[in-house]
Design goal:
Blueprint: E1 10-13, H1 15-19, H2 29-42, E2 46-50, H3 56-68, E3 73-79, H4 82-92, E4 98-105, H5 108-112, H6 118-135, E5 139-144, H7 151-164, E6 168-173, H8 180-193, E7 201-206, H9 213-222, E8 227-230, H10 244-253, H11 269-280, H12 301-309, H13 337-346, H14 353-369, H15 375-384, E9 393-401, E10 408-416, E11 419-427, H16 430-441, E12 447-455, E13 464-472, E14 475-483, H17 486-507
Parallel strand pairs: 1-2, 1-8, 2-3, 3-4, 4-5, 5-6, 6-7, 7-8
Antiparallel strand pairs: 9-10, 10-11, 12-13, 13-14
Helix pairs in contact: 2-3, 2-11, 3-4, 4-6, 6-7, 8-9, 16-17
3-methyl-2-oxobutanoic acid binds near residues 142 and 174.
């Protein structure tokens, strides 16, 4: 892909591939389609939609995303073998602008796994890139673990990939090992010394193990890279990938020293961040740059005073630049449907009439229990009701007795595949009793690997959002829910996770995690 001009940086989003690889972040088919649509609308140049050979689910998602994409290039990942590349092409070929991304680990540690000599690996790179190029005229090649590969060997294989027809060369810092000075030097050196380097786009793909992914990506751009690979909220394995919102806003705010621009509509950042957080079940830390709850909050008196006099005293970008609307108290029990529709539109949600009716009913219930309904409450309401129509397990009612002097008791009524069932259980606290009751009604061996409670706003009547992650036979599902009653939110989040696990059991025939990235044959 050619860049518009020297200072245009191409944004390659891999939330749906590298981000989704994060254990527990698995998204459903519909969620992937929705996120891809939002990325496309936001102006992301290339969407890496998945790893088609990994599972039927990935293949179908990449295929559908490719069919629906309007402007973005749709890319799929494949290892360095013909079978992977063919499967990838089968999925991405439906896009107006398809791309095949093929990779192989080139560092000594990664070469040792398939037990290939330097020459054998070079031959494999030539053959697989040529094969991909015969199928698709837009091919990206990555030497995985590039930053721990001997520079001489790296130059040799980059040259081979360029000669075989790759038009983008991505340099991954797979384990987040590099540092800004080295990141810039490496790209500069490759561009200066590899024959044909001026004919291709160099990309940077950084992981955040040492907290330097954003700095390393921007340094790579200073060194000559013109494609940044990143994810929304920095989602990704271990410490995650470079956060899209950070690199995009850094180049926008500091255009004086980083004279580059992207095609991203930054006002869509907050909505995407919230959607990715909800569907992945990965909460954004409050102090996260750009999209954290506190990123634009000014608590201290000095800051507040300065902000009132001139917002630029403590703000280097405006909240509205990233799509944050004012978080005033705007809704209460007298607010009507039209006001709710308009408020939700400001928050990035355009709901169909039936969805709006459903949210309106739940909004009224909340407004009866909670005097002040904030934007965050509304967001929790909208996202908590999702997928309810397809759920096999639905909570009908829950009563809990707890306190000092004895175990807690929970009486739970649930509808399971249309049949109403009741269970009573005691436990070590109300949440334990409730989860036991769910397990009595729907016996399962899923392991509870995460249970997290967050207050949406302040005050004792605040809603709590609860995240629950369940693991069963290699499948992982995260559920979320919100309620002013923490135990009710916990029960709903647990059941939400179970429903997702059931979808996964049915749909994902082949678990993608059985496919090793190191397996090139
Ligand atoms: O981090 C990495 O090396 C990757 C490759 C598959 C590009 O994600
Ligand atoms: Zn990666």
């Amino acid at each position: 892909m050619s860049t518009d001009s020297k200072d245009r940086v191409v944004i390659f989003d891999t939330t749906l591939r590298d981000g989704e690889q994060s254990p527990g972040a698995t998204m459903t088919h519909d969620e992937k389609l929705e996120i891809a649509g939002l990325l496309d609308e936001m102006g992301v140049d290339i969407i890496e939609a998945g790893f088609p050979i990994a599972s039927e689910g990935d293949f179908n998602a990449v295929t559908e995303i490719a069919k629906n994409a309007k402007n973005s290039v749709i890319c799929g990942l494949s290892r360095a073998n013909f079978k992977d590349i063919d499967r990838c092409w089968e999925a991405v070929q439906h896009a107006k602008r398809p791309r095949i991304h093929t990779f192989i680990g080139t560092s000594p540690l990664h070469r040792a796994i398939p037990n290939l000599t330097q020459d054998e690996m070079a031959e494999r790179i030539h053959d697989t890139v040529t094969h991909a190029r015969n199928l698709c005229d837009n091919v990206q090649w990555s030497p995985m673990d590039a930053t721990r590969t001997e520079w001489d060997y790296l130059k040799r294989v980059v040259e081979i990939a360029i000669k075989a027809g790759a038009s983008t060369i991505n340099i991954p810092d797979t384990v987040g090992y590099t540092a800004p000075v080295e990141s810039a030097d490496l790209i500069r050196n490759l561009i200066a010394e590899v024959p044909g380097a001026d004919e291709v786009v160099f990309a940077t793909h950084c992981h955040n193990d040492l907290g330097m992914a954003t700095a390393n990506s921007l340094a790579a751009v200073a060194g000559g890279a013109r494609q940044i690979e990143c994810t929304i909220n920095g989602l990704g394995e271990r410490a995650g990938n470079t956060a899209l919102e950070e690199v995009v806003m850094a180049m926008k705010v500091r255009g004086d020293i980083m004279p580059y621009h992207t095609g991203i509509d930054t006002t869509k950042i907050m909505h995407l961040s919230r959607r990715v957080s909800t569907v992945s079940g990965f909460q954004v830390q409050p102090n996260k740059a750009i999209v954290g709850k506190n990123a634009f909050a000014h608590e201290s008196g000095i800051h507040q005073d300065g902000m009132l006099k001139n917002a630029e005293t403590f703000e280097i970008m405006r909240p509205e630049d990233v799509g944050l609307t004012e978080t005033n108290i705007v809704m209460g029990k007298h607010s009507g449907r039209a006001a709710l529709r308009s408020k939700l539109k400001d928050l990035g949600y355009e709901l169909a009439d039936n969805q709006l009716n459903d949210v309106f009913v739940r909004f009224k219930e909340l407004a009866d229990r909670k005097k002040e309904v904030y934007d965050e409450d509304l967001l929790a309401l909208v996202t908590a009701g999702e997928d309810a129509a397809n759920d096999r397990l639905v909570i009908t009612s829950l009563r809990v007795a707890c306190g000092t002097g004895g175990p807690a008791d929970a009486e739970l009524v649930m509808t399971i595949d249309g049949e109403e069932k009741t269970a009573t259980q005691s436990g070590d606290g109300p949440v334990d009793a409730t989860f036991k009751a769910v397990r009595e009604l729907y016996p399962n061996n899923a392991h509870l690997s995460l249970y997290q409670v967050h207050a949406v706003t302040e005050g004792t009547d605040a809603q709590a959002t609860v995240s629950v992650r369940l693991e069963e036979d290699g499948n992982i599902a995260t559920g979320q829910s919100a309620d002013t009653d923490t135990v009710v939110a916990s029960a709903k989040a647990y059941v939400n996770a179970l429903n997702r696990l059931l979808v996964r059991r049915d749909k994902v025939g082949q678990d993608r995690r059985e496919i090793s990235y190191k397996d090139v044959s």
